[in-house]
Every structure is written in C-alpha cells, then in structure tokens.
Amino acid sequence: MEEGADRTRPATTPSVEAPERAARRLLARIVAAMAGGGEERPGQEEMAASVARAIRTGTHLVVQAGTGTGKSLAYLAPVVDSGRHVVVATATKALQDQLARKDLPLVERAVEGPFAWAVLKGRSNYLCRQRLSELEEGREQQHFAELSEVEGESALEVDSGRLGAQLRRILRWSATTSSGDRADLPFEPSPRAWSSVSVGPRECPGAFRCPSGNRCFAEAARDAAEAADVVVVNTHLYGSHLAAGATLLPPHDVVVFDEAHELEEIMTSSLGVELAPGRFRALGAASRALLESEEAPVADAVVQIAERMQSVLAAHAGTRLSLGPEASRPDRDVADLLVLARSRVDELTARLRAAEGAHDNDGAVPRALSAAGHIASDLARLSEPGDGEVAWVDGDRRAAVLRLSPVDVAPELAASLWGEVTAVLTSATVPPGIERRLGLEGHGATRIDVGSPFDFSNHALLYVARHLPDRRRPESEPAVLRELEALIRAAGGRTLALFTSRRATEAAAKALSGAVPFRILVQGELPKPRLVELFAAEESSCLFATLGFWQGIDIPGRSLSLVTVDRLPFPRPGDPLFDARRERAGDAAFAEVDVARAATLLAQGAGRLIRTAEDRGVVAVLDSRLATAGYRSALLAALPPMRRTTDRGEVERFLAESLAR
C-alpha cells in the first residue's frame, strides 16, 4: 500500500478532484438551506475541500478554524459525502447538542440519497430497565436501606423524601420514553435518584447476562449507532473506547475530533484510572443485600475499606504518590491499603459467584460482579504503575480521589488510534506542538489554518493593564478590582469576567456587587445554562465565572461587549500531573507545558467575545506580564488578530463608540 493511501476501503471516486468538488457542492446546498440563505465563507469551503482530500487519501488533518468559520458544517459535508462510517467526538455537551439539534438535521435535508445519523452516549446516561424492574418490584428497597446507613441518611428519608418523589416521576416517564436518555427527562434528577435507575459501564454485566438485555435502552442506542453513517459521541466516551480495546463504539473509518485543543487532557484522563471511596461503599452496600446474613460481614469489610480510604487519601490530598512494591515510606499506607482492598474485593467476588445460582434471572449479582471486577482491575493497575505513569491524590481532604494517568498519551494513541482510522482534528485554537503531544508525528498529518471571516482588527481591541502591580503579589488584588470596576462601568455592564480560581471569582463578585449599578451573576448560583440565558437576556448584566466558562459558551450581540481575564491561566504550581510533564520536558518545561497550556486557555477565553460579524468589544487582561514578560509573544500569537493597547482611555473610547452604534 502506498504511503497516504486509504487504509480502510478501496477508493470508488471516478477522479482525483471529484470528492473535493462534491463536498463543496453539498456544502453550498446546506448553506443555501439555512435561514436567510446563509453566506459564502472561503475558509469554510477551503476546510471542506481539505477534509474531503484527507479522507480520500487517508491522511490525518489538523485544522485551525477561527471563530465564525462554520467548522461543523465544513467537516460534516465531506464526511457525509464520503460514504464512510464516521464518528464525530466533541469535548462539550453544548457542541454535541448543536450537532444533533441543528447541524445534522440541516445536512440530512440537503443530502441526495439515504443518510442516517445517531447520538451515542455513555451507558450511565440511559435508564436501565432491569434496575427499574427491580425498583418496581420493591427488590431495591433493601439496597436503599443499606446505602442510606452508609451515607448517613435514614431509610425513611431515602424511601419517602425527595429521592422517592423523583423516582416516582422517573417511573412515570419510563412508560412513555422511547430513548431512555436522561437528557429527555422533563426535570433534572439528583445524582442519587438517577444512579438508582441506571448503571455505569463498570456495573453493567452486558446484554447477554442481563434479564432485560433484549429491551435495553443503551443497547438500542448502540444498535442505532451501528446502523448510522455518522455517530456523534463525547470525546470522553471515545477515550473510554480506546481504553477498552476499541470495543465500545461501532466500527468506523474516520474520526473527527472537534474542540481538539481538549484532546490531550481528555485522553490523559480516559486512559488512566480513578478510584474513589464511594465505589467500595456502593459495592459493599449492593452486595450485602445479595448475600446470606452470615456472609454479610464480607460485604461490610468492603464498606470499611471506603472509610479507611477516605481517611488515608485525605492525608495525601494534592500530592504525588510512589506506589507499587517499592513504594516510598511516606506512601506506604496507601500501597498497603491497595493490597488490603484487593484481598477483600477478591473475597467478596468469590461469595457473590457462589450466590449467583440463588438469584436466577436476576441482574443484581452480575452487576455486583462486574463492579467488583472493575475495581479489582483498577487496584491491580494502581498497585504497579508503569514507568510512564503518575499516581496522585486529587481533590481536597473532604473528597479525595486516587488517580493514575499516563504522563504522555502519545505512545498509546500512536499504537491504538492513528494507524486504524483517518482522523480530522479541528478547533478555533489548535495548540502548538499538538501533533507531537498526541503521537501524530510520523503518521503524515497535514496542518492548515483557514482563518476567521470576522474583522477582528476593527471590531475587537486587546487591552493589557500594564500599569497594574505584578499579579503574583497579594497587594495587586485591590488594584485589579478598581480596574475591573472602571472597565465594567465603561462597558455599561455587559461583561464576562473570567477568573482562574473560585476564590477570586467570589471575592470580586462580593466586592463589586454594591459598587457598580449592574446585576452581577456568579457561577454556582444557578445551573450553567440558566446563568448564560440570564446574562444574554439582561443586556446590562455581568457574569463572573471561572474555568468552566472559558470555553463552550456562545453569547452573540451587545450583551457581551467586554471579556476580562484576571490573570494569565498558567497551571497551578504543585499539580502532580503537570509536575510530571515538566520533569519529562526538562529544560523546555516552562515553554512546552506552562506557556503552551496558558496560551490555549487564554485564546479560548478571548474567543468568547466576537461570535458574529456584527459583534464588537474588548478583551481586557488584568495581568501586566502579557505586556512585559519574555514569553508574551507565544501567548499573543495564540489570540485573534485584535488591535492592542495598554491605554485604558483608548478602551473607554472604543467601548463608547461600539455601544453608540
């Protein structure tokens, strides 16, 4: 096979140029069908032709498509026209919803010929008919009682309080739903309520071992995905698919990773291990109801591991661990606990297998065995980390989690992904060096930048508050708040204020709530979609938020005229995973790890400002290092081509002119 040839099926196109021309024609039909007739975008057309060429030649493609390109339609047109089986993986639910509710229906109407698409989610997003059946029969009540004892609630509260009311609503909904998808519920259930009627991939024993397997919602969704031409998934699910040996998703020829700037971090998480005390607690509580009374202490012993783990991990919160047989003395308590946990889980597994015959046609025992098997597997991996892996305790003392992740995902992706499918990676901001960090080097990837149709140089201004004190000094806070207040007043509210910590977010909101005559919405007060909705609807309002709002939100129009960033978003010092990456990078650590990550996040935050051709506004960075530090050029290069200033007077004039239009 020639280098760059199609790795998955023979080419059927009559000429070299046909796929590119066909993709452009389909894109033109799709755009023409849009409300108002759409508009021609040269960058979108260039991207569509490049994606078609990549699929035809089997060449991986990395595309930076600036805001306003219309990248979703730019890749959907060629992948649909190709006739290949394609998976589109998105990093955010917002984009997944956009594809399912807007873009794919538009494509479907424009396609000449049969075309099917589907959305596939992780198993825990679907109602489990077997759990529901057991709940209706009352067989789950003992489980609720056991779980409530462990969680510190009374059985009465679990059975008849808010949980009971939500479960009854879910039961009524189950009689009419055709999808079983949590997203289709008419209300948002509590995590406890939904976990009572769903199972995760670690618990599910599989359709063949489940009494309700032949009418499973999750299996029905997978069947629909098997029959579809295009399947939309979450990037985390794609990572789980790779971690499971490429067994979770239907066979496909092409994968598109949208929001590819998140791919490295998502794969780092997906290809690792996460173990929290709650998994032992849930396994023990569920198993206790399945064993004879004289064997209940075996299940209780697993619950006790949860309590002990919570205490042990709390003492190591935020620290890197040395595990395995050669564990260092400070980490010996964690290593010993893993050994003890494995022995107790193995003992419980043996008792559950012996009890399986007494629970014929019952899915509870297979679920418990599946959960126990996954815990045992994770314990084994944690007990002997590989040379390229780092273990640490994430979270705080109250909610500590034991994690293990590869420091470098490139070897795993190079071995399991890039040689199997043709990949398109796209984002408004493609981080520098992404090919190397993802293992694409050596696989013939092509990179293009199709720009943005927006007039950033005239419609946007980048302001760096050079006069402010060094942001790393505590005394800078009052000056930053005064600067933020002045900017908000100049913008007439209409501000998305982004912060690098929850503490800074809440402190600024508290300080400015009475100082400016505008409503200040604060992350955490309401669900994220509701906050964005209120911010967009009330033009003079402000929204103060942290990293969850730096990307994935779209607020076009006058409601967002100013984006402020409180400080450069460098990874925090002492983060065990980033420390391991710094060690690997050696002398180049600051540039390759810290600056690269900060550049990507800063560009994503700035990208919230201009969302349509008519939008105008200011991005204000309240960190003087962007004007003075030697590395500033790397950060500025990642931003849209905005005019720059360090003069707040110029900012005030620009905002006044913009708001007068």
How would you sum up this structure, described in words?
This protein is α/β, with parallel strands linked by helices. It has four domains: 182 residues, 3-Layer(aba) Sandwich (Rossmann fold), CATH 3.40.50.300; 97 residues, no CATH class; 134 residues, Fumarase C, Chain B, domain 1; 205 residues, Rossmann fold. The chain is 47% helix and 12% strand. It contains 27 helices and 18 strands. It has a seven-stranded parallel beta sheet, sandwiched between helices. A seven-stranded parallel beta sheet has the order 14-15-13-16-17-12-18, sandwiched between helices. The longest helix is centred in the middle third of the chain and has 24 residues. The N terminus is likely disordered.
The CATH superfamily of the largest domain bears the name P-loop containing nucleotide triphosphate hydrolases
Mean pLDDT: 89
Which blocks of ≥5 consecutive residues have pLDDT under 50? 1-16, 142-160
Intertermini distance: 60 Å
Compose a concise summary of this entry:
With 661 residues, the chain is α/β, with parallel strands linked by helices.
Would you spell out the secondary-structure blueprint of this structure?
Layout lengths: L17 H15 L9 H16 L3 E5 L5 H12 L3 E5 L2 H18 L6 E3 L9 H8 L4 H11 L3 H6 L1 H13 L16 H5 L21 H11 L2 E5 H9 L10 E5 L4 H8 L2 E3 L1 H12 L7 H19 L5 E2 L10 H24 L8 H20 L5 E6 L6 E6 L3 H7 L5 E6 L6 H4 L8 E6 L4 H4 E5 L11 H16 L3 E4 L3 H11 L7 E3 L5 H10 L4 E4 L16 E4 L10 H10 L3 H18 L10 E5 L3 H4 L3 H6 L5 E3 L2 H13 L1
Parallel strand pairs: 1-10, 1-11, 2-4, 2-5, 3-4, 5-10, 12-17, 12-18, 13-15, 13-16, 14-15, 16-17
Antiparallel strand pairs: 6-9, 7-8, 8-9
